[in-house]
Predict the 3D structure of the following.
Amino acid sequence: MALFDVLAVVVDALDQSGIPHMVSGSVASARHGESRATQDIDIVIDPSREQILHFDALLGSAGWYVGDGLEALERRSQFNVIDSTSGWKVDLVIRRDRPFSIAEFARRRPTVIGGVATSIVTVEDSILSKLEWAKDSRSERQLRDVTSMIAQQRTSIDWDYVRSWADELGVRDLLDEVSRPPS
């Protein structure tokens, strides 16, 4: 199974379970910036307990490894599912219960990725999320993704939104370091 085949199966199971979702991580940043190889797919979800149970049953019955979604929901963390035939992994991240994560999820946009109808994080929110990841780790990969998205989307980015949340999230210095957005 190829990346987009895996995405199609997981998105279909999310849709059948009624779980709101958005593609994020490296798949989203590649969509907003430059393509790069990835080892997994990240999807932010906002499920109920019943929806998680339905989703787990759908993929489990199809032979997928399914992590503990109920524990992830309770802890507002993440779990993964793995296609047993291809080894592709999908990280399912429970939407955090904080103002930025709520706003980020509400701003997701419908799109088609590799023929799969889904939703995706906006470029602004992808930049902010990657800056947050990079804040403590100083991950070169995250910073390269941010630089790439800014280079590709500079004129369409809502800089007031990005600056405001960068200040709130404590990543403004890092944003200024990787880019000099227009005033």
